[in-house]
Sequence to fold (293 residues):
Amino acid sequence: MAVPKHPPPFTVSFLGSDIMLYQLKCLFKGFIDFFVILFQRRSLILDMAKRDIAAQYSGSLLGFFWTFINPLAMISILWLVFSVGFKAAPQKNVPFVVWLTAAIAIWNTFSEAINGSTATLVNNAHLVKKVLFPLSILPVVKLVGSFITHFVFLLVLVVLIICYGMPFSFFWFQALYYFLAMSVLAVGISWITSSINVFARDTGQIVNVALMFGFYCTPIFWDLQIMPERLRFFFKLNPMLYIVQGYRDSFIYFVPFWHDWQLTLYFWCATFLIFLVGAVVFLRLRPHFADVL
Fold:
């Protein structure tokens, strides 16, 4: 009786390694193509962002002026409540409204980008079903659309700094670095939330709760120094702490971004990990978007 031959164990292991290597190559190629598409379609991203902003205020009487009214109203309310009403004490000899506006300016942009991007695939189902349309740019469009509101917040911040007689510094331009860092973080998170939202529509509500939780866990209304030393480490795990503190360092305290190199290193390691995971999730789920929508 002939004994059936089985491939030796090392052959199976070798074959499995080849399959894994092939998958890694495909993943790496798709990851590189991601960035190539973003660069090649930069004009399309800008055009879609303009149309998205116009659509937000379509039919309203004041239209685009709401982009300026909303930030001005928010800062005015915060000034009345905290500076006039509660008479909040200056933070390290800095007027509380200036100290608060520096943090609100960047957090509002981050929150707006994440909230808008989460539902962008569902809201643009007609584009998802187009085979040749680069879906990866849709979350980026929402981020670009939030630039104008952020610019208005910065104008208000600069006006407050001038009114309170605070000095000008070239450290202001350092905020561009922190804005870029926030953008990388926001895009990575947006790719994750927008992909999952196609399959689980509760994702939008979860994101809202997470952003609200993150708002109060980030030192926006409060200073990290009020926390006990043993708890500060856990708050520093929040990547947005680095960004918020960075805006204050740029506009108020004039501290270079490399001053706390350990926090900088942690932020970029965490952010690149989130960005990579976001890209992988988006690439793996993308073939199923059209079927679900």
